[in-house]
Every structure is written in structure tokens, then in C-alpha cells.
Amino acid sequence: MEEVKSKKLDAEYTSGEEMETLAKEMMSQRPEIIERLRKVLGK
Amino acid sequence: MQRVVPLLLVILFGSVSGAAAQTPYYQGKTITIITGSQTGDLYDIYARMIATHMGKHIPGNPGILVQNMTGAGHIVAANFVYAVAKPDGLTLLAPNPNLYIDQLIGRPEIKFDWAKFAWLGNASRTTDLLYMRTDAPFKTIEDVRSAKEPPKCGATGTGTTGYLVPRLLEETIGAKFNIVTGYKGGNEVDLAVERGEIQCRAFSLTAFFGREPFHTWRKNNFVRAIIQLGEKRDSRLADVPTLNELMDKHKTPDVGRRLARIVTASEIFQRPYMGPPGMRPELVKVIREAFEKTLEGQCILGGSEKQKARCRVHVR
Predict the structure, then answer these.
(1) Are B60 and B162 contained in the same domain?
(2) Which residue of chain A is at minimal alpha-carbon distance from B293?
(3) What is the pLDDT of residues B141-183, one digit of tens each?
């Protein structure tokens, strides 16, 4: 833990409500967007 | 005395039952934060920082432990918290933020619904950039767009920023890259850049300004950032265009913009904390408030630079 304590960690808070909204937005994609994402990922 | 004893009993019982009614849910309990990383990785370090400080902000002051549940790039941990852990507020998750992309493309190992976790907060945000060796014939991202021989960028694997960002730039603004994958770690990619084996790498702006060899490389003008993916230009990269600016310039269609939004959202998720679906709203509220106090949070999405500066805390 000494190593952990010596590290400087930047922390920047985002609320749970904001994250929930973003998560729902991310999971509501149109099929053509998901197909394009698969293509980008080479899947 | 016969009157005194019942009175004392009433006082005692009244006092005990009153205390019982007010006993905080978390008193005497232990919360476990499960992370899919190994001990010592950044996810683990952040989780231990949260575990060390959050208990004092939760009524009842529970103990908080961190458990490392590795496997399948955090998927094992996320599946466990989603489907096996009780939604009693005693098991939380600190996963890799890119898991939502795995769900979107339908990876069969995924047994969770990212949107249905109990969202508690996020501990860190960053943005990405792509740096290029300054002796390469690509001074700007426009040079990459028009190059006959694309630059070689390095990445560890296809699910990483080093791969996703160049592919996103190909899809959205017509840049072309040769992406060389298979490096064991980010340091190996940087070493390959140093050797001249490859010329570029996409990764976090925090790392670019936060550690070696980048301090030396920037000082010696060995590399330069040619694009950044934040919503606005970072003040340290005032002359480097954002992807949004370039998508406007090149009139990227809506599909490409949606794609960019999906890929760059992982910069916002960065260090997410969640609970299993079905966690009682009052427990979600308690943990959200404690999480915010732990992070000394003043920031929300879109907060001012002054607000953001106030939320930067350091663990020493």
C-alpha cells in the first residue's frame, strides 16, 4: 500500500444520475449504428 | 420502588427500541467492492482509495473491502455483480468502462445489461488524443487524410483505445492508418515508437501530460498530438483540433457522429461504480451521496474548469 499512497491520482466526480442517463443512452442505439460499430471493431 | 422499576423498564426499553429504529442499515456491515483487475492496476488502486475513505461518509460507518475478481477483461466480475450478488448494497462493482461496447456488439459472454445496473458514480474522467512522431511526414491530421502511405499506429489489442481511436478516425473523417496490434502493453507501444517501428499511438491525455517518457518527448519535440477527442480543446493543446471540429469540417454523417459518441463515452465512464440491479433506492441514495463526498465532488458533466479544478484530489 505504500506504493499506492505515493501515487497521485486525479479524481473527478460524475454523479450516479448522470452516469445512469449516459448508460441508458449508450444502450439505445439503432441497429445500423451497432453494425457500424461491429465493423469498426473488426467483429 | 414498585413504581420505579416499571418506569425504569419503560425508559430502558423505550431507549433501546428507539435506538434500534434509528440504527443505520450499514452499521456493523461490510461492503465489498469487486473489481475485475489485478491488485495494483489503476482500477484496483482507485477502488482501494474509495474503500479507504467512503465508509466514514456512510451512516453506520461500514467497513469496505476490495475483492479482485479477474477474468475475461472484467466480464467475470460484472456478470457476478449483476446476476449473482444480492442487491443489498453490500456488493458493488468497479469495472472496465469499455464493457458497454462489448454488450452493444453482442459478445456472448456478456450476461448483464449495462443500463440496468444501479449507477452510483464515476471517480475520474479523461479524454484521448493521438500523438505522432514529429519526424514523420504527417504534421496534421489532414496530412494523414491525404497520405498515400498511411502512418503506422501501435495498439495492444482491438478492444483498446490504441485501436479504437484510429479506426474511429477512419470511419468519421476519412483518415487512414495501418494499425499494428499485439504489443504486450502501452509501454511496449511507446518503445516501438521510439525505435521508429511505428509512428503514432492513441491513448489518454492524462498519461500524455502525466508521466514519462512523455514529459521528455514533449520537451524534446519528439512527438506531437495531432488530434484530441474531448468535447472542447484542452488548454494544453490549444492548437490541436478536436474530432468534433473535424467532423463539422468534413461534414461527417449522423451515423459517424453517433459512432464517435459511443466510442468517446468510455472517456466519461472511466472509473464507474455500480451496484446490482434492484438495489433499494434509499441505499442507492446513501452510496451516491457518500461517493460524492468521498470524491469531494463539485463537478458534473459540463462543469466549468473552475469547478473541475476544485474536484481534483490527490491520494498521497
Answers:
(1) no
(2) A13
(3) 999 999 999 999 999 877 778 888 999 999 999 999 999 998 8
Q: Max alpha carbon distance in chain B (Å)?
A: 102
Residues B248, B134, single domain; the answer is yes
Q: Do A16 and B113 touch (CB under 8 A)?
A: no
Give start and end residues of each alpha helix (H) in B70-200. Answer: 75-83, 99-104, 141-146, 161-173, 186-195
Give B-chain residues touching A41 at CB under 8 angstroms.
Answer: 101, 105, 158-159, 164, 167
Structural domain range at position B243: 128-266
Q: Is B105's CB within 8 Å of A42's CB?
A: no
Asked if residue B281 and residue B234 are part of one domain, the reply reads: no
State the CATH number of the domain containing residue B240.
Answer: 3.40.190.10
The ipTM assigned to this model is 0.88
Strand order in the sheet with B128-133: B178-180, B152-154, B200-204, B128-133, B223-228
